[in-house]
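Now produce a polypeptide, keeping tokens residue-aligned:
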Amino acid sequence: MNDPAGGSADQLAVERTGRQIADTILAGFVEYMARFRKVSRRAGTHFTNREWGAREHDADQRLLMHRSTVLATVDRVRPLVDGVADRRGVWRAGRSHYKERIVDRSDFGLAETFFNSVTRRVFTTIGVDNDVELRWFGATTISRGEGRAELFTTATRVRDTAAMVREILEAAAFDAPWADVGGRRTANRCTHRLIPTRRVGQPLGRRKRHVAARLLPQQGRLFWSGGSREQKTRGTPIVIPVVHANDGLRVDTVLVTESHASRLFSFTRSHFFVEWSNPSELVGFLKSLLPMKSLAELYTAIGFPQHGKTSLYRSLYRHLDHSHDKFVRTAAPRAWSWPSSPWCRSTWCSKSSKTGSIRPRTPPETPSNDGTNSCTTTTG
């Protein structure tokens, strides 16, 4: 029987259920992001009050937050598809409505990953299911967001470098005193680290503008002040770790090279706590400082390992799609390498299983060109 408004009753039921699926999953994602930001917001207070135990508790809580929210969302959405004759058809309708709801969100990439996490548990997916998942293997564009004054502050060298460093440290607005009065000795020590980095014969005035994140990452007992120095046509990183010691705040060191700063945002480090309205903008800013660092590592470093895995898979898929080289047998038994890839793919067989793993071609202690320190995936 056809509905007067057009379309059969079955089609209308599918659309109605699809909207319910989209609304339920989006509500779960919104809840996850709200909880994520609430926990991240507490990092500044923990640092100011030196509450290291509370910080570790929050780190554990946030690490498990994505999985727990996904499982709760699965419990809410599963009754909508159980008992439906065309489960996949209903889910495809839900996917279409979900895409419409997230298209204008600044965190739509994270929303896509959340949808796929729910989908894979509802359908017990192994591998990739193009029929029901959200897929995108094209180019990824991310904004640096430097035009937004609420996210960045700019310090310009007018008098001397020490004054500019003090301006950068004051912009952090710590609610704790410096170990030295006004941070002057701290600024002077930072200046000594910055000045020798200029090339011989290069006037210091050419590198006078610094762009620093106003909302700063926090890891363990350190606050990382991240920014860039404009050097001719590109920015180079400057990272100032601040430790909260018994006698007050102190600068732990100053990192002014890409290779040194890159080590902070690797799979070997615990996740940063950053309260940021647009995670992709933060990743874009970090990417502008560390162009060889992969998006997978940057998303993982700021507390989104699930989307980091998504980014890793997408880059691997794109490489597979455009690569024309063949796997090369290695000296190891039943193992092959992938010459054009930053990863080395090895496959070995046993009586009980066949497993493949992807590992970096360089040793863990030697950073690779894209900053990858460790990553592993398995295929059945």
About this structure: The chain has ten helices and eleven strands.
